[in-house]
Structures are given as structure tokens and as C-alpha cells.
């Protein structure tokens, strides 16, 4: 395994990779010699995978076999159909990352199997877990998941070590929007607060233009273009061209001949879109950026007047209306102090270099981050057992350690289940479940007389330790939740006798298939075999613990690895 760690910006529209060497960041070109790789994955007519430029090129001819904007479906559980098969966003993201690993290895002339991958700051734990799993399926050891605005700030900060300022990173990409407020001082880059909108990006501005095109065509010809997948692809391409052109020109002439056919007659789309019209139809999208900014200012305790600079990140910030809105809303002229397309991957490469030791602590940035979501446990409040009690609020600087004391809720209770959740709702049903454990051995006494001290410890590597202690006896129990990889009980069961579990039978065939591959492997130290071995072990552990739900999910992961290796 090579020691070089690369930084990857896995974006909604495009993906970029960078490496830190010879004292600076360097973008890694793909086989076409391009820095920017379209985040598009497809299957060609021969049944082979196509990724990046080749996949984008086939989008017009085979839209039913091609997927784009995969990142938006991460963590949703929604499947994506390519031809006759359904694929998870995780699997398609893995194909994209595998392509990056292949061309990075070729360019750097060594096997690349370690990476820092960026994600939107407002990605929840499920979305982060899927990103890590996609990286592992692609053959990467994912060293760190890094928030995109923090990554961009690192790209800026590495060249401005002496600066002392409050920086607002405004990151509007193809599919997501993030805003993070950071403080720089004495080589320290400290995140104060993050917020965002995972369903707001350049694609939504494109969608407004597409709606306009469709309505004009319907009005003129009484033909609904949305029923034609080939027409939809052409509309999308034209919307992107129109959006980009309006960043430079006052108007754009849309002309798409033979877009549809009615009664044997080819029909064309012919209209002019002005900057004024474009700004009017997307005004509601621009205003949606204000709420996350307000959250960040409120959570950080800073006012707009205390912000020293606003740094624009993400290709969608090239639209002049964005700069104009920021200036009007915050009273600050935003800066293009970093390359909006490359800054995130460059910052990830800086973080990779720090992990590698290429940038020594005394020479580089010291970075702190925040947890973007509230963390807590399920409690009974006297009326309902669906309440979430907050232990670590959102936007607390990590590493963080917080304690809360709870009492038993029923008479002579001898155990308590500690369920851990992430989210902003007062109700656990609306938040994300992270894991659980049972605290046994509570002395049987009347309700409320026994106390449990619950401690959350959350570190920079995204690991949450949750510990519960019976105050009267000192007995404790705990769970470690790797926020990038999912829950893991500290004392793992013996998996040698996994076949004796009552839930084992349904998983025997999948495990046996994987074990046959491992038995035939000549070099089990290769990343793909280590990932396969780990997946088998995790599945056996869930089977031994008779956790059928978790086992079913882990079997899906194992099957995806097997499919990737076939």
C-alpha cells in the first residue's frame, strides 16, 4: 500500500483530486488531461461501466443508462436505475471514486489507496457513513472525512498563516450549500459554526431555467417535453450553458432545433433569456441562503460587522447575483481568494499532508471543527418516551466532552437502554438513530431514586464515545460510535461460532461466497481483500449478536463489495 494520501472533492456536478508534494498542493488530472471530472456514471451498450467524461458523453444518447447528481441521493435509501438494474448511490459513488483512484495512481506512479474525502458540512451521520463506505468499496482507506467549507478554508489558510480574522466561507456548489464561520489566529483555524442546505445548489438554478423552457414549449406547441427523456437531457445541457453565459452576458439566445416532433413536424425551442428574467425566476433560491447564514451568526455569537472577509467557494458562486446578494445582505464585498472549483480538493490535500507528516504541526495549520448536528439520547419526560435529551448541542467545537445526569423512570427498574440520536428535533423519531447499549445492574429502587451519569466524548476523528455510569455503584457500560463508520460495541463478541446463531442461515451463502474468494486470494494485503475481510467480520459480529436488521444492512455492503470485485 502506498503511503501517499490524496484529497478528493466528491461533488454533485464534478469531482476533483489533489495531492500535496514539493511543498505545495497539486491538482491531479484525469486520463483526458482535465482537472475537473464530471460526477457521472453509466453503463454502455456492452454492459461495461463508464465514468466521468465518457459517461457524460453518453448521457444524450442513453439517459436511461446514465446517472448524474448522485450525491444528492446519498443517505436517502433511494435506488438509481441504470438500464434494467437498480444501484444504490453508495455503489455509484464508489465507481466514481474507483475511477479517481485509478487515474491518481497512474499520474502519481504509485498505488494510491488512502484518501481524505470532503463532504458538505451539513451532511448527517448517515450520509457521512455512506461516503466512507463508498470510498472503501473503491479501494480507499478513508483517513478523514472533512467538511467542505473547512477544507476550502485550509486551502486559503495555508498561505495566510499570520492572518487574524473571522472568515465566512460561502460554499454554493452544484447540489449543496454550506456556510461556515471560522476564526484564524496564530496558525489556528477554528470553526465557530456551520449550517447549510443539502438540497440547494447550481442544479436548482438550472431547474428554474428548464421549467421556463418547458412552459414556453408547452404554451407554443402543447407538447410536454418532460415526457421525453432525450429532450430532457438536451434541456439540461442548454440550461447549464444559459446559466454560465448569463454570468458574462446580459442575455442568452436559446435555440434547440428538432427538440420534439408533432404530426411529423420537427419543433424547435427558440427564446431569449435575460439576466433580469433569470434573477427574477431564481430569487427564491438566493433568499434560501440567508437562513443558514443567520443560524451560523446566531450560533457563533458574532454579528455581520465582526466578519472580516467572505470567501466564495463552489462553481455556482460565479453567478453575479450571488455576489450582489451577499453584499446587500451582509454589507461585505465577498472575495474570490481561492479557486472556487479547486479549493475544497486542495484543502483536503493539505489535511492529507498533515496526516502524512509532510506538514509538521509547528509549520502548518492547527484545525478545529464543530459538530454540525445536536447529539443526545432518548428519554421519558413523564408524558412520552419519544423525547430527545440534548447532551452535545450543535456547533460545539470538537473535541468535546459533555455530561448529563438522568434518573430511572419506573419503580424497581434494573436496566436502562441508552439510545443515541443526532438531529435538531425534540422528538427522536425525526432524528437519526446512531446506536444503543443497555446499562444493566441498576439497584431496584423506586422511580427517580437511582441516577445515571451519561457522558458523550466526541473527537476530531469523528468518534463519539458514549458512557453511562450508575452513580450509586460506579458500574458503567459504553458504546463507541465512529461517526464515519457506524456503531461499534467496545467488547466485540466471539465470531467463531457465528453459524450457531438463529439468524445465521439467511446469510450463509453470501459469507461462503466471500470466504471462497479470500481462500483463493494470493495477496490478502491488497485493499480490496482487506475490505472484503472486514465486511465478512462485521456481518458475522451482527449475526452473533442476533441483530438481524444490522446484519441485513451489512450483507448489502458485502454484496456490493463482491459485485465490485466480480
Structural commentary:
There is one protein chain. The chain folds into 4 domains: 5-200 and 289-370, ATPase, nucleotide binding domain (Nucleotidyltransferase, domain 5); 202-283, Actin, Chain A, domain 4, CATH 3.90.640.10; 375-488, Substrate Binding Domain Of DNAk, Chain A, domain 1 (Sandwich); 498-565. The protein has 14 helices and 28 strands. Residues 484-492 have low confidence and may be disordered. The radius of gyration is 25 Å and the shape is globular. The protein is an alpha+beta fold. Helix 3 (125-137) links the parallel strand 10 (114-119) and strand 11. The longest helix is centred in the N-terminal third of the chain and has 20 residues, at 89-108. Strands 1, 2, 3, 4, 10 and 11 form a 6-stranded mixed beta sheet that branches. The chain has a 6-stranded mixed beta sheet with strand order 17-12-13-14-18-21. Strands 22-25-26-27-28 form a 5-stranded antiparallel beta sheet. Helix 13 packs antiparallel against helix 14. 33% of the residues lie in helices and 30% in strands.
TL;DR?
With 566 residues, the protein is of the alpha+beta class.
Features of this protein?
566 residues, alpha+beta, Nucleotidyltransferase, domain 5, Actin, Chain A, domain 4, Substrate Binding Domain Of DNAk, Chain A, domain 1, six-stranded mixed beta sheet, 30% strand
Amino acid at each position: 500500500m502506498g503511503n501517499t494520501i490524496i484529497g478528493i472533492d466528491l461533488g454533485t456536478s464534478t469531482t476533483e483530486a489533489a495531492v500535496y508534494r514539493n511543498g505545495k498542493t497539486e491538482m491531479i488530472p484525469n486520463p483526458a488531461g482535465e482537472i475537473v471530472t464530471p460526477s457521472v456514471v453509466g453503463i454502455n451498450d456492452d454492459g461495461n461501466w463508464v465514468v466521468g467524461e465518457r459517461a457524460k458523453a453518453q448521457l444524450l444518447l442513453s439517459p436511461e443508462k446514465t446517472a448524474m447528481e448522485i450525491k444528492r441521493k446519498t443517505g436517502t435509501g433511494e435506488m438509481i436505475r441504470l438500464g434494467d438494474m437498480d444501484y444504490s448511490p453508495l455503489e455509484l459513488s464508489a465507481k466514481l471514486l474507483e475511477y479517481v483512484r485509478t487515474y491518481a495512481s497512474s499520474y502519481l506512479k504509485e498505488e494510491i489507496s488512502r484518501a481524505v474525502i470532503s463532504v458538505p458540512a451539513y451532511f448527517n451521520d448517515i450520509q457521512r457513513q455512506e461516503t466512507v463506505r463508498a470510498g472503501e468499496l473503491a479501494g480507499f482507506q478513508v483517513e478523514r472525512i472533512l467538511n467542505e467549507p473547512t477544507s476550502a478554508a485550509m486551502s486559503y489558510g495555508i498561505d495566510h498563516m499570520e492572518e487574524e480574522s473571522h472568515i465566512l466561507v460561502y460554499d454554493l456548489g452544484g447540489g449543496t450549500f454550506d456556510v461556515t464561520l471560522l476564526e484564524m489566529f496564530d496558525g489556528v483555524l477554528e470553526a465557530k459554526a456551520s449550517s447549510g442546505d443539502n438540497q440547494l445548489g447550481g442544479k436548482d438554478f438550472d431547474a428554474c431555467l428548464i421549467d421556463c423552457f418547458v412552459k414556453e414549449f408547452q404554451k407554443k406547441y402543447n407538447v410536454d417535453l418532460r415526457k421525453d427523456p432525450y429532450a430532457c437531457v438536451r434541456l439540461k445541457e442548454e440550461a447549464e450553458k444559459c446559466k454560465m453565459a448569463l454570468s458574462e452576458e446580459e442575455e442568452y439566445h436559446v435555440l434547440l432545433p428538432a427538440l420534439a416532433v408533432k404530426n411529423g413536424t420537427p419543433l424547435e425551442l427558440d427564446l431569449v433569456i435575460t439576466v433580469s428574467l433569470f434573477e427574477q425566476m431564481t430569487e427564491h433560491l438566493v433568499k434560501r441562503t440567508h437562513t443558514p447564514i443567520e443560524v451560523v451568526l446566531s450560533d457563533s455569537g458574532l454579528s455581520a460587522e465582526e466578519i472580516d472577509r467572505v470567501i466564495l467557494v463552489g462553481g455556482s458562486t460565479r453567478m453575479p447575483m450571488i455576489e450582489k446578494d451577499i453584499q446587500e445582505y451582509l454589507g461585505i464585498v465577498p472575495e474570490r481568494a481561492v479557486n472556487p472549483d479547486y479549493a475544497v480538493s486542495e484543502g483536503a490535500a493539505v489535511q492529507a499532508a498533515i496526516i502524512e507528516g509532510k506538514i509538521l504541526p509547528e509549520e502548518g495549520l492547527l484545525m478545529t471543527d464543530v459538530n454540525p448536528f445536536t447529539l443526545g439520547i432518548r428519554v421519558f419526560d413523564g408524558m412520552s418516551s419519544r423525547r430527545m435529551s440534548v447532551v452535545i448541542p450543535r456547533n460545539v467545537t470538537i473535541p468535546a466532552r459533555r455530561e448529563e445526569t438522568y434518573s430511572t423512570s419506573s419503580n424497581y427498574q434494573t436496566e436502562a437502554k441508552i439510545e443515541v440520536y443526532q438531529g435538531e428535533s425534540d422528538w427522536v423519531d425525526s432524528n437519526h438513530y446512531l446506536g444503543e447499549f443497555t446499562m444493566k445492574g441498576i439497584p431496584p429502587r423506586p422511580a427517580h431514586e437511582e441516577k445515571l451519569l451519561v457522558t458523550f466524548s466526541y473527537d476530531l476523528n469523528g468518534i463519539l464515545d458514549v458512557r453511562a455510569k450508575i452513580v450509586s455503584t460506579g458500574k458503567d457500560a459504553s458504546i463507541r460510535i465512529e461517526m464515519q463508520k457506524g456503531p461499534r460495541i467496545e467488547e466485540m463478541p466471539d465470531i467463531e461460532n457465528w453459524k450457531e446463531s438463529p439468524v445465521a442461515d439467511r446469510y450463509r451463502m453470501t459469507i461462503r461466497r466471500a470466504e471462497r474468494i479470500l481462500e483463493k486470494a494470493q495477496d490478502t494485503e491488497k485493499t480490496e481483500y482487506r475490505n472484503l475481510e472486514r465486511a465478512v467480520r462485521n456481518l458475522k459480529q451482527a449475526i452473533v449478536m442476533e441483530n438481524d436488521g444490522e446484519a441485513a444492512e451489512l450483507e448489502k455492503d458485502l454484496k456490493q463489495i463482491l459485485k465490485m470485485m466480480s
